[in-house]
Specification:
The protein is an alpha/beta fold. It has two domains: 122 residues, Periplasmic binding protein-like II (D-Maltodextrin-Binding Protein, domain 2, 3-Layer(aba) Sandwich), CATH 3.40.190.10; 105 residues, Periplasmic binding protein-like II (D-Maltodextrin-Binding Protein, domain 2, 3-Layer(aba) Sandwich). The protein is built from eight helices and 14 strands. The strands form three sheets. Strands 1, 2, 3, 4, 5, 13 and 14 form a seven-stranded mixed beta sheet that branches. A five-stranded mixed beta sheet has the order 10-7-11-6-12. A two-stranded antiparallel ribbon has the order 8-9. Strand 1, helix 2 and strand 2 form a beta-alpha-beta unit. Helix 2 crosses helix 7 and helix 2 runs antiparallel to helix 8. It is globular and about 65 Å long. The termini are far apart. The N terminus is likely disordered.
């Protein structure tokens, strides 16, 4: 009789433990947030062709992408940081780093990086840097990252001399220590630079913006020599960088379909990294 009672107690105990285990798994499942499948992605006209090629591939994986296009580059990062946008694709790494440092941002560029940006000095009036007259007016971006790059490009092509190190972390006009042709500079919004070319002697412009405007690179009179330090890629908040949806998005945006679109559309203004 005692042996029977011991066996019954053991059966009841095992059943209780299994029941607790079952409750634990049920509670865990109930507390697991559902997989995110509705995404808001921001870009600009310059990067949209690659995103357009990616969207059907994401749809095949069960995702819905709401694509938002912006004319103001700063607003895209602000929206991503605030969470009204999940992911963006439009910028190079130094621009992102400058945003994070100036706005206390927590955005990260997800590797693998996708494209390498090229900058050029473009002119509708002159065919070479030697042809630039004394006192020529040069348009340059007003944002810190692209202004810094434009000045470095002019330095690397022998058109001016900059201080050994920038006074404020990125080169500005105050860091020019020798300007032999006495160039005059006008600072312009990044997206408006191309429109200034008829009014200035030359402009320091990201080459892909000419391609987006239906032009070619033949009006370039010199080009950047620091391209590897300006990779472009997909950007998310740090707390989203390891999610399943960003892994799926990166798989889609580095597909053969997206690579072929980038190769055809950018025509050498970007180097493709995937």
């Amino acid at each position: 009789m005692k042996k029977y009672l011991r066996v019954m107690c053991l059966v009841i105990l095992v059943g209780a433990v299994m029941g607790l285990g079952g409750c634990s798994k049920s509670e865990e499942a109930a507390n697991t947030p559902p997989a995110k499948t509705n995404l808001k992605m921001a870009t600009n006209a310059n990067f949209q062709p690659v995103v357009d090629a990616m969207i059907p591939l994401m749809k095949a994986k069960g995702y819905t992408i709401e694509l938002l296009t912006f004319d103001d580059p700063l607003s895209i990062n602000v929206a991503t940081q605030e969470g009204s946008v999940d992911v963006n694709f439009y910028q190079h790494l130094p621009y992102l780093n400058k945003f994070n440092s100036s706005k206390n941002g927590t955005l990260v560029m997800v590797q693998l990086y996708l494209l390498v940006s090229k900058m050029g000095l473009f002119s509708n009036k002159h065919k070479s840097t030697d042809a630039l007259p004394e006192g020529a007016t040069i348009a340059i971006a007003m944002d810190a990252a692209n202004k810094d790059r434009g000045l470095r490009m002019l330095r690397d092509n022998g058109l001016l001399t900059l201080a050994e190190t920038p006074a404020s972390g990125a080169y500005t006009l105050v860091d020019i220590i020798d300007n032999p042709k006495k160039f005059k500079f006008v600072e312009v919004d990044l997206y408006q630079l191309l429109r200034t070319l008829d009014d200035v002697d030359a402009g320091a412009i990201n080459a892909s913006y000419l391609i987006a405007a239906g032009k070619d690179l033949s009006s370039g009179i010199c080009f950047s020599k620091d391209d590897d330090t300006f990779p472009c890629g997909v950007v998310v908040r740090e707390d989203n960088k390891d999610t399943q949806w960003i892994k799926d998005l990166m798989e889609c945006i580095t597909s053969d379909e997206c690579r072929n679109v980038a190769k055809e559309y950018y025509k050498g203004s970007f180097r493709i990294l995937f």
